[in-house]
């Protein structure tokens, strides 16, 4: 599996202040479903969207007075972005299934979405 992750690993560049993200890290550490793990374009899109949302939420926060982020801040930032991307991926998964299946899964998916959204918010505190 590790070789498979390397073959589909795509880096999502940071902005010079916030770190780059990795699709392989996202797949491995956030239990991304196999049906999405091979779709690099989709994963990159979800990571970029989450990255933009988190960066916007943090825009008014003065984290380091211009100094680079420390290791702990990078961990929290990454957790916020990856958790937000996971939440958004769960919502898109719900929309891509058949209506009957979606109805049966809706409560579970909403709970998962809320969980990962909460994880993202907690990482920014």
Mean pLDDT: 82
* Tally of helical segments: 6
Which H/E pattern describes the elements?
HEEHHHHH
User: Which term fits the overall shape?
Assistant: globular
Number of strands: 2
Instruction: Kindly name the structural category.
Output: mainly alpha
β-strand amount: under 5%
Tally of distinct domains: 1
Strand order of the largest sheet: 1-2
First-last Cα distance: 34 Å
The rounded Rg comes to 15 Å
Proportion of helical residues: over 70%
Instruction: Give the low-confidence spans.
Output: none
Major sheet attributes: 2 strands, antiparallel
Protein name: Phage head protein
Topology:
Elements: H1 2-7, E1 11-12, E2 21-22, H2 23-29, H3 34-37, H4 40-58, H5 71-96, H6 99-124
Antiparallel strand pairs: 1-2
Helix pairs in contact: 4-5, 5-6
Protein name: Phage head protein
Organism: Pseudoalteromonas piscicida
Keywords:
125 residues; globular; 3% strand; two-stranded antiparallel ribbon; mainly alpha; 70% helix
Could you describe the 3D structure shown?
The chain has 125 residues and is mostly helical. The protein has one domain (2-59, 68-124). Helix content is 70%, strand content 3%. It has six helices and two strands; from the N terminus they run αββααααα. The chain has a two-stranded antiparallel sheet. A hairpin with an 8-residue loop joins strand 1 (11-12) and strand 2. The longest helix has 26 residues, at 71-96. It is globular and about 50 Å long. The model has no long low-confidence stretch (mean pLDDT 82). It comes from Pseudoalteromonas piscicida.
């Amino acid at each position: 599996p590790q070789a498979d992750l390397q073959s589909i690993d795509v880096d999502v560049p940071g902005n010079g202040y916030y770190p780059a993200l990795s699709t392989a890290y996202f797949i491995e550490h956030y239990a991304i479903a196999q049906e999405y793990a091979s779709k690099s374009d989709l994963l990159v899109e979800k990571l970029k969207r989450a990255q933009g949302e988190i960066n916007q939420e943090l825009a008014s926060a003065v984290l380091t007075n211009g100094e680079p982020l420390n290791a702990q801040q990078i961990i929290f930032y990454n957790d916020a972005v990856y958790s937000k991307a996971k939440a958004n991926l769960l919502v898109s998964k719900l929309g891509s299934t058949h209506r009957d299946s979606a109805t049966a899964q809706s409560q579970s998916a909403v709970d998962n979405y809320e969980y990962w959204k909460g994880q993202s918010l907690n990482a920014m505190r």
